[in-house]
């Protein structure tokens, strides 16, 4: 884009138009390159500083999510955990959309709680789900769709969850008004996505909503010997043979051919595909097997912390559902739908980062409920004062 060839050639050279990734973050990188130089150290620093900013700003929606869902103590614990846990910042050096997508999804989730009036004094739905908030809801979803399209799996459930109080209300007097506002919100989402879809239709002479690379992702995640992990060596960005094939066939035909081969392999051995899917579910929540390292602590500590938060997040969600916390159902659908596509393709640890604010919130909720139940009484100041009184 910076050199004047448009949105094309994701792997170097000039291989023609591309829709390999959603457009938001590549355009953002291109803007940084124009200002600070192509692949310069200054550009790398600026992009990482933006990741720092996105990560830091997440404390605000995280605070609102935790306070509205579980109370002030959980909100304080959640944001402190987010601020001081070093593994929160592990994705900052990665020049990718992960931190921005995480921030946008957390903002959408916090906005939805506000639109339902959760954590506030009882009010009519028309007073909490105002037209302005519905428009902001649509705008945030539209921007997120241009950055991480897989998050759109949660959009239908989000709309239903917001409209549910109007449906349950006796007489359903507010349902028509809320449905109109929801339709306007969806129109904004479609308006955000339409320029990209028109561009793809013109460039490829066929309708492509967001991305073209699903066939390849399916192939590198389910090829011979994959065992639930992506076959990175078979990707055109690192494999010269695959790059030449990509250049010769073009992006659409290349991804279609790789996808057809992957589907054929899956049909040949469905049991292996099912086993790989179960492995990917495990990897998503409890960590991808770490690369070997002579330092055992460096090798296993990040994966151990990743697994700890995954386990606590799931346990916290189960507790929230048991206690009928007001936002527990929306959290459950987010946990169910956001990872769904990755289970069937391949998994990397950064894919879970979009859910991490909810995971930290539920982890804090789990441990505070345990402390209140005196299961870990030594965490309370009163226990220490009673067992180790200070002499006058």
From TrEMBL:
Name used for this protein in its record: Putative membrane protein
Protein topology in the membrane: Multi-pass membrane protein
TM stretches of this protein: 20-37, 44-66, 95-113, 134-162, 182-202, 300-321, 327-345
Subcellular localization(s) per the UniProt record: Cell membrane
A cellular component term, taken from the record's GO annotations: plasma membrane
Superkingdom of the source species: Bacteria
GO terms (BP aspect): lipopolysaccharide biosynthetic process
Main location: membrane
GO MF annotations, alphabetized: pentosyltransferase activity
Keyword line: Cell membrane, Glycosyltransferase, Membrane, Transferase, Transmembrane, Transmembrane helix
Species per Swiss-Prot/TrEMBL record: Acidobacterium capsulatum (strain ATCC 51196 / DSM 11244 / BCRC 80197 / JCM 7670 / NBRC 15755 / NCIMB 13165 / 161)
